[in-house]
Amino acid sequence: MTRVRIEGLTKVFGKTLAVDNLSLEVRDKEFVSLLGPSGCGKTTTLNCISGLETPTKGDIYFDDQRINDMPPKDRGIGLVFQSYAIFGYMTVFENLAFGLRIRRVPEDEIKHEVEQMAEFLGIREVLQEKAGKQSLTNLQKTAIGRTLLIKPKVLLLDEPLSNLDADARDVMRAELKRLQRDVEQTTIFVTHDQLEAIALSDKVAIMNLGRLQQYDTPDVVYNHPKNQFVANFVGSPSMNIIDCSLKLDNEQAVLVHPSFTLDVTNMRHHLEKITTGSEVVVGIRPEYLTVTKQPSKLSVAATVYVTEPLGHENIVYLQLDGILLRAVTPAAVNFNINEKVGVEFHKDKIHIFDRKDGEAIV
Ligand SMILES: Nc1ncnc2c1ncn2[C@@H]1O[C@H](COP(=O)(O)OP(=O)(O)O)[C@@H](O)[C@H]1O
Ligand SMILES: [Mg+2]
Fold this sequence. Notes:
By secondary structure, the chain is of the alpha+beta class. Helices cover 24% and strands 34% of the residues.
């Protein structure tokens, strides 16, 4: 049983505020991702948990024990980095056995545990081969296996898939997901890749400039981003963003852009506290725009700028008076450059953010 609780964690390096008053709780057996752009403080947070760095302020607890002053070796941490520090001249077996040997586990027990882990990871056939000859996927499995064999209280993974090429990364992502289900291990996973975080995690903590932006399930951060940063960072291709002003009267709510208007009366009840004329930012994901050959009463007129066929679907770039929108469309329908089309916004998928602070209104 290990729950990790971070309270008001702050880490300053000289003039850099690397982590700014971060609080979050990772429940026992939960898989949580720290997600954000390079330099947002993910690794520093992880290093404070493992003891490689000392917090400037704040407390870290494993269950109810404060571990700030506990030496790193006593924390029961398993760490896997991007560069996984596998010994190439040793066999896969010896690499897996490494942590157990240090802990003076009896030889027959080591053999049993290593073989079981190798079976579990699908690398049993290569146990007696030199690690240096293995694929990157096998090396990463070996690194994770070696760490799991010491039965850490908390597993910390820092961008473990970044060194892999696209194919291997997809495979390892799936493997990690299986592993997570089977080992039920409290895990904190650092990544700058939103797809990895969304695909793997029970919860995602999105960070920017050292600050926590939102901490919730993948479903909530995707469908109900708390602010414009999260909306933009999660999802690919990313959300369309359009500056509008909001016209409200007793019955109606209308988003007004210089070249079109969008009736959002369906959202009127969320806009009680907003004054008419407010400057807002409208967000809509590319999959919630429908492009039609024939403009209709419900659609906004646009011109096709360019299309990108992806095989199973297309991304159509649309021009609307100086703004460029992206729409995901079925592969079966072809659009030509400069074609005049209609664009329909899925009304219940529109996000509205305050333009001053980027916070979500709806
Ligand atoms: N040892 C250090 N000394 C000085 N600045 C550091 C050190 N480690 C990290 N930083 C700075 O702290 C910020 C956060 O870094 P880091 O936690 O590595 O980000 P991430 O892992 O999200 O890419 C960055 O601005 C980085 O340059
Ligand atoms: Mg990092």
